[in-house]
Specification:
Layout (H helix, E strand, L loop, with lengths): L8 E4 L3 H12 L4 E5 L2 H7 L5 E4 L5 H6 L7 E4 L5 H14 L3 E5 L3 H10 L3 E3 L1 H14 L3 E8 L2 E7 L9 H4 L1 H5 L1 E8 L2 E3 L13 E7 H9 L2
Parallel strand pairs: 1-2, 1-4, 2-3, 4-5, 5-6
Antiparallel strand pairs: 7-8, 8-11, 9-10, 9-11
Helix pairs in contact: 4-5
Bound molecules: adenosine-5'-diphosphate.
Length: about 220
């Protein structure tokens, strides 16, 4: 049983990406409706998430019959078939789904989804590639999220060069234009950290800054 007072999610398209989203939500205790037009995929997931149905979501009547309007968030994870992805998003918008998240294959596809009214457009391959690249360049980088084309949020292991210094002494804002928004220390999360907070070995700093500044911090040993 899912958590009844929690959000209801529907995931359309059970490829690698969609199935991962559906399984993660299901494991977190949410009710998930998973939809795919392929009978084999539907069979495969029938034991794993709350509800799995076979439907072609480019068909308006089928979508309505699923009661898709009652879901808080619908994720369009159809990958290869751009036309089916766009058409499904358009229909969901027309039906009045409150929050639509759609996966784009490329920038042009993403623009189209935004124009149609997708509330959030995601580029899983591009974003994952970027995150992996940052973690390859610097062993200190644990995660990387692009907030805008020139601003990013990075989770970075405290570099040796900063250990024992307070945030005021490290002076990262003036040196690199980055702000330390939180420090993870074991189980503890210090947010917001005071200027007097000393950087310890094994601390994980969560910083926001320009791509240039963040890159300089990543390059610190
Ligand atoms: P990924 O790149 O994440 O693996 P795929 O393109 O391989 O994505 O998978 C997308 C899934 O979407 C497939 O399982 C496919 O059967 C499903 N799909 C494609 N078109 C439709 C549609 N019109 N209605 C519902 N599901 C669809």
């Amino acid at each position: 049983m899912g958590k009844k007072d929690k959000k209801q999610f529907a995931i359309i398209g059970l490829g690698r990406f969609g199935s991962s989203v559906a399984l993660s939500l299901s494991k977190a205790g949410y009710d998930v409706l998973a939809i795919d037009s392929d009978e084999e995929r539907v069979q495969k997931f029938s034991d794993e998430v709350t509800h799995v149905v076979r439907a072609d979501t480019t068909d308006e009547a089928s979508l309505k019959a699923l009661g898709i309007r009652n879901f808080d968030t619908v994720v369009v994870a159809i990958g290869e078939d751009i036309q089916a992805n766009v058409l499904t998003t358009l229909l969901l918008k027309e039906i009045g789904v409150p929050h639509i998240v759609a996966k784009a294959r490329n920038e042009l596809h993403g623009k189209m989804l935004e124009k149609i009214g997708a509330d959030r457009v995601i580029y899983p391959e591009r974003d994952m590639g970027m995150r992996v690249a940052h973690s390859l360049v610097s062993a200190n980088v644990l995660d990387y999220i692009e907030l805008s084309p020139n601003l990013s949020l990075v989770e970075v292991a405290a570099p040796q060069a900063l250990l024992g210094r307070s945030l005021a002494e490290a002076n990262l804002r003036a040196r690199y234009g980055v702000n330390v928004v939180a420090i993870k220390r074991g189980e503890q999360i210090i947010v917001p950290p005071l200027p007097s907070e000393k950087i310890n070995d094994k601390d994980i700093m969560i910083v926001v800054g320009t791509n240039d500044g963040v890159q300089k911090l990543e390059e610190l040993e």
